[in-house]
Design a protein that fits this description.
The chain is mainly alpha-helical and 303 residues long. The protein folds into two domains: 90 residues, Orthogonal Bundle (DNA polymerase, domain 1), CATH 1.10.150; 176 residues, hpI Integrase, Chain A, CATH 1.10.443. Helices cover 52% and strands 4% of the residues. It has 13 helices and two strands. Strand 1 and strand 2 form a beta hairpin. Helix 6 crosses helix 8.
């Protein structure tokens, strides 16, 4: 059976939606853009590396380098899917996505977390949910998709130290991993569970919108995190992922290694952790100064 580009995209997107629903919309846009670009080619086997290069060059005047790099990863994943099923001879290894990381990327610090948290009370459900979410994002370095996927049954009983833990599914690897948080977050979790278990809903997700009974959407969390950062007068563009970047930098600033970052943030590929090395200006300056050579004035005069 000859696989058309249109059919291959539709089948792939249906599969993708069952695994990473949050990325589905972006994948759909990029793949449909690619389909329109390669016309009049119709079948999947007609596509080659030159088509991929030409497509991304066509994006250069419209999109940022980060967006183009992400597009390359979308196409690489798409062709791996069909290459593994023997439907295309094109080797996805030819697509080499480059990850662009801004040295000035906004990250959350412990001070930022404290400023935002202080704005929220624990006696109202909505404030308590927001407070719990930002503390969980910071303590565990979880991705927002992992956090919103947590079910009540994923929360473990309190251990000998009085602290709960949870298992989260990393969508990139489809594996479950343990996440651990501190005593302050644990107190918030215990208080919230007392309210959550009384909610009249069939949804088993831990974090749900009390008005609708449905799981919070990533967009709604992003919206009120923006509101919180503005109320706290943080001159930053804070996103849910900023907590993850902040946690990585905190680990490194406390003397942790890249391996520690990789383990605690549950990276599928260890090399993903190296991107965080260039995010902290302070850490760069500290390392640079460590290896500077100091000359005496007599040596300088002799030179």
């Amino acid at each position: 059976m000859i696989m058309t580009i249109k059919d291959s995209i539709q089948i792939y997107l249906e599969w993708k939606q069952t695994h990473t629903s949050s990325a589905y919309a972006t994948y759909k846009i990029r793949l449909q853009q690619f389909e329109a670009f390669v016309k009049p080619k119709v079948t999947l086997n007609e596509i080659n590396g030159d088509d991929i290069i030409a497509f991304h060059r066509s994006l250069e005047n419209q999109y940022s380098l980060n967006t183009i790099a992400y597009s390359a990863r979308v196409l690489k994943n798409f062709f791996w899917f069909w290459h593994g099923r023997g439907k295309t001879a094109f080797n996805p290894k030819e697509i080499i996505p480059i990850r662009y990381v801004s040295a000035d990327k906004d990250i959350v610090t412990t001070e930022d977390l404290s400023d935002m948290s202080d704005l929220l009370e624990v006696n109202t459900l909505q404030d308590l949910q927001k407070k719990l979410i930002i503390h969980l994002l910071w303590d565990t370095g979880m991705r927002l998709s992992e956090l919103l996927d947590i079910k009540i049954s994923d929360i473990n009983e309190q251990g000998v130290d009085g602290l709960r833990t949870a298992k989260v599914r990393t969508r990139k690897s489809m594996r479950y991993n343990l996440v651990i948080w501190g005593s302050d977050t644990n107190d918030l979790m215990n208080r919230y569970l007392g309210m959550r278990l009384c909610m009249d809903t069939e949804t088993q997700n831990l974090l749900i919108n009390p008005k609708t009974g449905n799981v919070f959407t990533p967009r709604s969390v992003q919206r009120w995190i923006n509101e919180l950062s503005e109320m706290a007068m943080l001159d930053k563009n804070i996103t849910p992922h900023s907590f993850r970047h902040g946690k990585a930098n905190y680990i490194l600033d406390q003397g942790g290694s890249v391996r520690d970052v990789s383990a605690l943030l549950r990276h599928v590929k260890p090399e993903s952790s190296f991107q965080y090395m260039q995010l902290s200006k302070k850490r760069y300056e500290d390392v640079a100064r460590r290896y500077l050579t100091t000359f005496s004035s007599s040596n300088l005069q002799a030179a």
